[in-house]
């Protein structure tokens, strides 16, 4: 190694640390004045168009759906990511059935075996109007899902206007989702 | 003598002592004033005494239920069991910072006591660097997170601690993990001292390695304990979440593992000097940054426990001084370090370089995945989440060649090796691995678990065969084998154990990929089948604990022929004062398979009540933590190596160079 190349290489770590340090400082600064909320990092896409995707259905539960189907809707739709292996998903089911009388819910089974998802949905009656399977969780990544259950409110044209990252119950629906809908005049 | 004011005073005193320990020896070494240098061990030990007193005072405040101390009022309660009054001291931000500085003080005192054979100047400088880091953290504790702050009027009872933390595993997790984090301060201090001196040699490698190994052992145990805790307390049946907090401990573990290996090359062959110094600095820097990221709240995590941007700014300044300072020194001095030890790519050194490259690549992947979300938000204004699929996809392809190299590495001679000749020693390992692969095919479905499992078996068998060859099994009489086993360096035994441990952990991870689970909602008396076993909910009872109400289930498990395997008693506890619910997982293990049961909600009442149960069949799960324990034991074994304890490095180096 030539001396200059050595000097260059040994200076790289400090340069890298410097870039990181300045970025951290900016993040902290933005946190202090409220323009950056780390808790919101996992709450993406609100106010944005839905990501493109096309998912197969769950056997015995229809054909699945894609972003085109979702965009073509003339009514708002709740998208609910769930899995048969998740306890909060079990718990939110009665609530979802109640909510499904007020708004169509489309379900996406996240990393779930089709037969398990099928049994899960059939057990006490399905709240879902349409169902799709995200076997390997790739679509969930595009949606920014960090854990099931998560729900998204989609308005006609395919824009996300609300996101909830916990089990959805009728009360949350009344307090958070309905006002959002009223705001956009739906 | 033992009250919060005294503890506060002792902490302030320790801070002054630490500053003195930082400045005097450095100045003394610069001016060649021996007395100022020699005072360093005395200061380090005094600092430890002051810190211990301060920590003891805080524990006393908690044990005495002194709710006039804000920290105790916020985190303790009269009804809390004594053990958790003590361990709860470090279950919150302020107390854990104090624990952190206490362990740093222990490190300084340990260098003073065990480093008698170090040259005075080097020891003085090492202690000075440790003192400087200590002083910074004690200042942080005093100025932004004082555990001795009073509250007026004092509340009659405290608010109690997070019931999730009320667990023996988690009670002892922080001290072990912190000892790992903080322990890397010693190799860091050695690296900075070497840069100031402008000299890194074989003796330096020999001094620095035991400290790195010790810290590595603690970090390994700490990470394993944390993963085990999330397995049996959180009740989700998993072991690794790729959560930022978990990554914050994995990152220094990866660079620390690389450091432990590259320091061998410095010690034996005087090679990889600059790289090793950089690793020592990087490992401690990652330990510090991990703390910073979690404490400042930049990283969004399920279990970050103190989010305060003001503290973040302070730690960032501290990091800028410690990391920025050491890396600047590195950029300035490292080019002048001469490297030695020429070796061919196929050699022990070559294998260790490969190991370093792969470990650092995995580390880069984890750092990228962890930092990507906040940075994308900052730079592009858009949010993105990075989760398990990314980490799995990016780390596994790097782990496979690492395992392959691990099996061959220890069998290769230094300087220059013949792959064909080495493989001829290891054909047995290849054969057994092949059989292992067939068994894996029979046991699992996926290609990836099979590849990983096969390589893990390869690592274990190759390590065993290599050690067997070194002690002459099959080549000489049994008596000879025993005497050879006795004189085989402990560090060699340690390496074998650690590699076998790594293999066992990987096997555990592969086994978990074959795990099965079911979530059921059933009545008492109903039975469900999972992996051929019959799980029956036989009884559910309610009872009242010391500070909670609980619902406890009896789940009997019978095998396909109706033979009773075990009865599990999972619980769900409701802590009234915090209004928090915890799950008490029930696990039946036979060291090969875990049967794992969790009870969830009750729906309905009386005879119509149904219960949500989560049932898991987890093959090889215990091996993950068993392997980690074996790794740490291997490290500890290597620490007991006579050569490290006696420490006659100069002589050893002469002997070593004579043999080359």
Short précis:
The complex is a heterodimer of chains A (186) and B (660). Chain A is α/β, with parallel strands linked by helices and 186 residues long.
Tell me the quaternary state: heterodimer
- Work out the largest interface and the residue count of each chain: A-B, 43 and 47 residues
Question: What's the mean pLDDT score of chain B?
Answer: 86
User: What's the number of domains of chain B?
Assistant: 4
Shape of chain A: elongated
Subcellular location (chain B): Cell inner membrane
GO molecular function, one term (chain B): heme binding
Membrane topology (chain B): Multi-pass membrane protein
Keywords (chain B): Cell inner membrane, Cell membrane, Cytochrome c-type biogenesis, Lyase, Membrane, Transmembrane, Transmembrane helix
Helices, strands, pairings?
The complex is a heterodimer of chains A (186) and B (660).
Chain A lengths: L2 H30 L21 E3 L7 E3 H5 L5 E6 L4 H13 L5 E6 L3 H10 L6 E5 L3 H6 L6 E6 L3 E6 L5 H14 L3
Chain B lengths: L3 H28 L2 H30 L6 H6 L6 H6 L5 H22 L5 H25 L23 H16 L1 H13 L4 H31 L11 H26 L3 H24 L12 H25 L14 H33 L7 H22 L9 H7 L1 H17 L3 H24 L7 H10 L2 H23 L3 E7 L4 E4 L2 E12 L4 E10 L5 E5 L2 E5 L4 E5 L1 E4 L3 E11 L6 E10 L1 H19 L2 H5 L2 H11 L1
Antiparallel strand pairs in B: 1-10, 2-3, 3-4, 4-5, 4-6, 6-7, 8-9, 9-10
């Amino acid at each position: 190694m030539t001396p200059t190349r050595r000097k260059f290489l040994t200076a790289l770590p400090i340069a890298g640390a410097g870039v990181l340090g300045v970025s951290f400082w900016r993040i902290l600064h933005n946190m202090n004045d409220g323009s950056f909320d780390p808790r919101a990092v996992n709450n993406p896409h609100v106010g944005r168009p839905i990501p493109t995707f096309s998912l197969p259905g769950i056997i015995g539960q229809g054909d699945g759906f894609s972003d085109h189907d979702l965009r073509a809707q003339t009514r708002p739709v709740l998208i609910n990511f769930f899995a048969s292996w998740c306890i909060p998903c079990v718990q939110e089911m009665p609530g979802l059935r109640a909510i499904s009388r007020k708004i169509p819910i489309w379900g996406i089974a996240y990393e779930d075996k089709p037969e398990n998802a099928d049994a899960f949905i059939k057990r006490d009656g399905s709240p879902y109007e349409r169902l799709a399977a995200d076997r390997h969780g790739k679509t969930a990544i595009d949606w920014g899902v960090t854990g099931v259950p998560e729900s998204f409110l989609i308005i006609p044209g395919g824009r996300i206007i609300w996101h909830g990252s916990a089990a959805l119950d009728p009360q949350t629906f009344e307090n958070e989702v309905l006002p959002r809908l009223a705001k956009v005049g739906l | 003598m033992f009250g919060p004011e005294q503890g506060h005073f002792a902490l302030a005193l320790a801070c002054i002592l630490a500053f003195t320990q930082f400045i005097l020896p450095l100045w003394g070494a610069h001016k060649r004033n021996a007395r100022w240098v020699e005072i360093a061990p005395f200061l380090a030990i005094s600092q430890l005494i002051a810190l211990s007193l301060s920590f003891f005072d805080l524990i006393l405040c908690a044990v005495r239920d002194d709710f006039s101390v804000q920290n105790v009022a916020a985190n303790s309660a009269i009804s809390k069991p004594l053990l958790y009054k003590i361990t709860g001291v470090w279950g919150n931000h302020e107390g854990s910072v104090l624990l952190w500085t206490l362990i740093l003080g222990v490190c300084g005192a340990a260098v003073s006591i065990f480093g008698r054979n170090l040259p005075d100047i080097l020891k003085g400088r090492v202690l000075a660097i440790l003192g400087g880091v200590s002083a910074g953290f004690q200042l942080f504790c005093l100025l932004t997170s004082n555990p001795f702050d009073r509250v007026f009027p004092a509340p009659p009872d405290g608010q109690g601690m997070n019931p999730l933390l009320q667990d023996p595993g988690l009670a002892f997790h922080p001290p072990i993990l912190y000892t790992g984090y903080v322990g890397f301060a010693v190799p860091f201090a050695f690296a900075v001292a070497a840069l100031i001196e402008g000299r890194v040699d074989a003796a330096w490698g020999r001094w620095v390695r035991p400290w790195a190994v010790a810290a590595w052992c603690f970090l390994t145990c700490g990470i394993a304990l944390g993963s085990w805790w999330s397995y049996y307390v959180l009740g989700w049946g998993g072991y690794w979440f790729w959560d930022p907090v978990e990554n914050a401990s994995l990152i220094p573990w990866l660079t620390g593992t690389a450091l432990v290996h590259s320091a061998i090359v410095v010690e034996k062959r005087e090679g990889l000097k600059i790289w090793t110094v950089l690793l020592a600095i990087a490992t401690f820097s990652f330990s510090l940054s991990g703390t910073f990221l979690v404490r400042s709240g930049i990283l969004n995590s399920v279990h970050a426990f103190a989010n305060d941007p003001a503290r973040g700014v302070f730690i960032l300044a501290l990091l800028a001084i410690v990391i920025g300072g050491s890396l600047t020194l590195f950029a300035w001095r490292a080019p002048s370090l001469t490297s030695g030890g020429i070796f061919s790519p196929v050699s022990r050194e070559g294998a260790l370089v490969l190991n370093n490259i792969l470990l650092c690549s995995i580390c880069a992947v984890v750092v990228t995945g962890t930092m990507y979300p906040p940075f994308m938000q900052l730079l592009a204004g858009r949010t993105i989440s990075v989760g398990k699929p990314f980490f799995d996809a990016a780390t596994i392809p790097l782990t496979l060649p690492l395992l392959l190299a691990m099996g061959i590495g220890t069998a290769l001679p230094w300087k220059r090796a013949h792959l064909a000749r080495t493989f001829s020693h290891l054909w047995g390992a290849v054969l057994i691995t092949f059989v292992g692969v067939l068994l894996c095919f029979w046991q699992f479905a996926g290609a990836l678990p099979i590849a990983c499992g096969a390589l893990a078996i390869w690592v274990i068998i190759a390590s065993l065969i290599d050690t067997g060859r070194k002690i002459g099994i099959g080549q000489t009489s049994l008596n000879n084998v025993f005497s050879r086993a006795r004189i085989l360096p402990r560090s060699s035994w340690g390496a074998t154990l650690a590699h076998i441990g790594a293999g066992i952990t990987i096997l555990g991870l592969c086994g978990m990929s074959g795990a099965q689970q079911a979530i059921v909602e059933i009545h008492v008396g109903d039975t469900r089948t999972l992996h051929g076993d019959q799980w029956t909910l036989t009884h559910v009872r309610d009872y009242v604990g010391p500070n909670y109400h609980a619902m406890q289930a009896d789940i009997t498990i019978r095998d396909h022929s109706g033979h009773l395997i075990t009865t599990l008693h999972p619980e769900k506890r409701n802590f009234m004062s915090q209004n928090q619910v915890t799950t008490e997982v029930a696990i039946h293990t036979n060291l090969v398979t875990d049967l794992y049961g969790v009870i969830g909600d009750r729906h309905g009442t009386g005879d119509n009540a149904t219960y949500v149960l989560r049932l898991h069949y987890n093959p090889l799960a215990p091996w993950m933590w068993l392997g980690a324990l074996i790794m740490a034991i291997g490290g500890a074994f290597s620490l007991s190596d006579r050569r490290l304890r006696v420490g006659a490095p100069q002589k050893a180096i002469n002997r070593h160079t004579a043999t080359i």
